Amino acid sequence: MSSQQQQKRVAEQDGEHANGAKRSRELAITNGEVKQEQREQAGEEAGQGGQGEGALVAVVQAMEEPQINIRMAVSHLHCHACVLPLKPPTFECEAGHVVCRDCRGSHVQACAGAGTYVPCAKLDGVVRDAKVACAYDSYGCTNWVAYHESSDHHRSCRFAPCFCPVPGCGNFTSPARLAEHFFSHHAWPVTEVDYAKPCKLAVPVPEEKLVLVGKADGSVFLVYPCAFGAATAVSLVCVRACGDAAAGAPQYTCNLWAEVAGNSLVLTSVVASSDLAGGFPATDKVMFLPLPPLLYGESGEPPALMARINKVGASTIRSSPSATPPSSLPSRMLH
After folding, report:
1. Are residues 167 and 288 in the same domain?
2. Do residues 59 and 42 touch, judged by C-beta distance below 8 A?
3. Residue partners of 194: CB distance under 8 A and separation at least 6
4. Do 179 and 309 share a domain, yes or no?
5. DSSP class of residue 52?
6. What is the CATH number of the domain that holds 85?
């Protein structure tokens, strides 16, 4: 090999080493969060503390612990006694079975080697950190939740899909996307509302429904006409799959009233929820306001309909990209 060829090969190897070092530095930046300037700042702080290289490593690790996605047998995260997801603190018996704290009594009777239980501190850390993507990620939820808390999350997730109630439509998606669907496919007017503030609405005709979207949290409500004997009635329902009693789900009440020429009728009720799987809920399932003929006046014009939705008993939702709804609807959806 000539001297010129050797020099060329050495240069290529140096380039590969440099590229490899660059890739290593890039891989050390977890999800783009720990940037070079953060490392330099951490180095300055560590230098000021006089603790040297070890302090720099500790500071960088404290910024953000690297994360990995893994697959494992789900049985490793389930209690041997109740077969439900393990919740810390966990305990291991002499037979090697891991159980939740509250399952030790029942496990003693079923396992001959369950005379002594030892706390599993290391497994507790795994159980706390083992996270799974929300089952409704395809509908817009980007939350990763602890595996043992995933059932609670799904019961209150605002992205849980619901149905379009129009016969033959078949659309099935999150409430937020349904609001867009109602507007674009069925031409139902969409109105943003402030909680605890009255909003004036038109009495919907049989072919039309009104879509209300809470500004504060993006919750979707439907206002629709329904039969009530010989009279007309107006119903209001919250569109969500999680239900009214789901832990962590916001709850709502509503004041619904109509008035014309000194005649008025007022209704205050808890707002029921529905995933609209069976179409529009019947009047015995949701709140409804009857509109007798006297409210229509001599001209036959429908009365002004007023609604005030109040958010009550809402639990604090941890701030995350998926838990923070848009501040406003697209302007084309508003009327």
Report:
1. yes
2. yes
3. 215, 216
4. yes
5. H
6. 3.30.40.10
In this structure, the answer to whether residues 44 and 127 fall within a common structural domain is no
Q: How many structural domains does the chain have? A: 3
- Asked if residue 69 is part of any domain, the answer here is no
CATH code assigned at 225: 2.60.210
The DSSP-derived string for 268-294 is EEEPPEE--TTSSPPTTTSEEEEE-GG
Looking at the structure, do residues 282 and 318 belong to the same domain, yes or no? yes
Which residues, including other chains, have CB under 8 Å from residue 192's CB and lie 6 or more apart? 212, 213, 214, 215, 328, 329, 334
Return the closest-CA partner of residue 162 out of 273, 73, 268.
273
β-strands 273-274, 231-239 pairing: parallel
For 132-170, give the DSSP string: EE-TTGGGT---EEEGGGHHHHHHH-TT--EE--STTT-
- Return d(Cα 149, Cα 81) in angstroms, integer: 18
Q: What is the pLDDT of residues 245-276, one digit of tens each?
A: 566 678 899 999 987 766 778 899 999 999 99
How far apart are alpha carbons 234 and 212 in whole angstroms? Answer: 14
Q: Are residues 309 and 212 in the same domain?
A: yes
SS3 254: strand
Q: Are residues 31 and 138 in the same domain?
A: no
Q: Tell me the CA distances in angstroms from 300 to 228, 259, 296, 303, 323, one per residue in order.
A: 18, 13, 5, 9, 45
pLDDT in tens, 180-216: 999 999 999 999 999 999 999 988 887 889 999 999 9
Of 111, 138, 156, at which residue does a domain stop? 156
Domain that holds residue 291: 162-333
Contacts of residue 258, defined as CB under 8 A and 6 or more positions apart, other chains included, come to 203, 234, 264, 265, 289, 291, 295, 303, 304, 305, 306
How many other C-beta atoms lie within 10 A of the C-beta of residue 126?
16
Top-confidence residue, 246 or 121: 121
pTM given for the model: 0.69
Q: Which of 110, 139, 156 is the last residue of a domain?
A: 156
Where are the alpha helices (H) located in the chain, listed in sequence order?
Answer: 3-28, 36-49, 52-63, 104-110, 121-129, 150-156, 175-186
Nearest to 275 by CA among 257, 254, 249: 249
